[in-house]
Amino acid sequence: MRILYYDCFAGISGDMNLGALIDLGVDPDYLKSELEKLNIDGFHLKIEKTERRGIYGTLASVIIENQDNEKHRHLRHVHEIVNDSSLSNKVKETSLKIFQLIAEAEAKVHNIEIQKVHFHEVGALDSIADIIGAAICLDYLKVDKVLSSPIQLGGGTVKCAHGVMPVPAPATALIVANIPVKTGLVQHEATTPTGAAILAATVDEFTETINSPITKTGYGIGQRDISEVPNILRVHLIETQAQLDDVRQESAVVLECNLDDMKAEHLEYLMDKLFDNGASDAWFTPIVMKKSRPATMVSVLCNPEKAAEMKTILFENSTTLGIRETQIAKSMLRREEKTVETKYGTVRIKECFLKGESLRYKPEFEDCKTLAIKHNVSISAIEKEVIKSI
């Protein structure tokens, strides 16, 4: 499995992303030739090697050839440019997903309809090149998964078309909602709306943990050189061992609290609420607390971005006054779901794999239960038919 990991310790912008992915191995000539498929004039890509604080990498600059004649474009114009090009469908899909995130944020910030958005971040040539270039580079690298560290947003203020704004800029703040971020490392805008949208649209998981060997590293050089913190974006290419291709590793959070003053019948509602809102798992454990009081420990397993929501549910729907939180790493087998036709009807089964081979499978209990009730037979009879039909 090939994994791309964004180390955004100093933030990310569109041009830093292009530089980093080129430095990682994307052929710059290929990128330029693909961008030509947009059939729009007025810009070209300049690629050069340079350094920031002694770290050498690639600086990718989108050069606008006639600044005076550059026009703002609405979102529909961007859709026309992308859809009318001969780029691959995957590149088109990724590009438009990024544009959509920025347009939605800008529309909300300025309280206008999304199709009326024509701000620099959506329509200008440099953003078009940065965003579509990002999609081209990701497609070129053929990675199976994209990971990222929390995003450094920076601090201070930034000058926008509408005046001086606090960092993060309003659009950036909306785009990174529910994404792990850090602030204050530098006193300038470390992450632009374009950079934030690229990550929001393409990253499968945000984590500070890398559990596999790094095979290659690239550095994208930013335009700034005014801070002791190097203005660079670091990216890693990670290739897991073949025997682990069916094992997916990711970060998770376990939330726990002890309840000794809550009605037992309310626990079922609490568990349903947790699952309905995205908990990966939840369970109750009987325990004995101080003064030998019987109690229940509630445990919730969830993705890090869901932790805040799970805490709110626990506080609002239980009697707890405090929650313990533990960061963990979990490994999961690759799973596939398929259907099996039996003489009683259709049953879904979940099959898991290890080292490229089927390890085991399990019939979906609710399907077996439904058919057992319908045909007045035991669940075991349904399961036996499933095994015969596989």
Written description of the protein model:
The structure is a single chain. With 390 residues, the chain is an alpha+beta fold. The protein folds into three domains: 2-240, no CATH class; 248-331, Transcriptional regulatory protein pf0864 domain like (Alpha-Beta Plaits), CATH 3.30.70.1380; 342-389, no CATH class. 34% of the residues lie in helices and 32% in strands. It has helices at residues 14-24, 28-35, 75-83, 89-110, 120-123, 125-141, 170-175, 193-202, 265-276, 307-317, 365-375, 379-389, and strands at residues 2-7, 43-52, 55-64, 145-148, 151-152, 157-160, 163-166, 181-182, 205-206, 214-221, 232-239, 247-259, 281-288, 294-302, 324-341, 346-354, 357-363. It has a six-stranded antiparallel sheet. A hairpin with a 2-residue loop joins strand 6 (157-160) and strand 7. The longest helix has 22 residues, at 89-110. The model has no long low-confidence stretch (mean pLDDT 91).
